[in-house]
Amino acid sequence: MGLLKIRTYPDPVLRERAEPIHRIDGFIKKLAKDMAETMYAAPGIGLAANQVGVPKRLIVLDLREREGQGGLVVLLNPEIIKASGSLRHEEGCLSIPGFYAKVNRYSDVVVKGQNLEGEDIEINATGLLAVVLQHEIDHLEGRLFIDRLGPVGKELFRRKWRKLRETEDAVQ
Ligand code: NI
């Protein structure tokens, strides 16, 4: 077992732009495995490496729990090469526990990257899969879903966060 600590807002590592992965060594393989375990344990449907404090371009996701199908996807150096359409979907994030909000995203994306064997892969995604890929790739750019909210959503987040912090302070 290798459960990793999930960094939460406003940890500065969440604002770092992740570095490309040029060599798939033991560290990267173990990181991918531990990230998958951490995501399942949370539980969550996606996780980016910055969220466990490693600013490298690596994401894991699995929609099985939400959609009843799928499986573990490990993607290195993911990149959106085509995007179209739009949808609005309620998002949350393991790094911003307790806050959910609707975010505008592309409804269709084509993402390319590499798997752990270093092979190029391309994913044609729509709906929730497209949303999760965009959310996780944003993490690699140091971007969070709250950045994509309008002024009202951002204000709601500020209030909620203030309240959560007060509750935490009261507990400690
Ligand atoms: Ni997230």
Give an account of the 3D structure:
With 172 residues, the chain is α+β, with helices and mostly antiparallel strands. It has 4 helices and 7 strands; from the N terminus they run H-E-E-H-E-E-E-E-E-H-H. It has helices spanning 26-41, 64-67, 127-140, 151-171, and strands at residues 46-48, 58-61, 73-84, 87-91, 101-105, 108-114, 120-126. It has a single domain (12-171), classed as Peptide deformylase (Peptide Deformylase), CATH 3.90.45.10. The strands form 2 sheets. A 5-stranded antiparallel sheet has the order 1-2-3-6-7. Strands 4-5 form a two-stranded antiparallel sheet. Bound molecules: nickel (II) ion (NI).
Write the layout of secondary structure elements.
Blueprint lengths: L25 H16 L4 E3 L9 E4 L2 H4 L5 E12 L2 E5 L9 E5 L2 E7 L5 E7 H14 L10 H21 L1
Antiparallel strand pairs: 1-2, 2-3, 3-6, 4-5, 6-7
The chain binds nickel (II) ion.
Features:
five-stranded antiparallel sheet; 7 strands; alpha+beta; Peptide Deformylase
* Stretches with pLDDT under 50, minimum 5 residues: none
Question: Termini distance?
Answer: 29 Å
**CATH fold-level assignment:** Peptide Deformylase
Number of strands: 7
Coarse morphology: globular
Listed once per kind, the bound small molecules are: nickel (II) ion
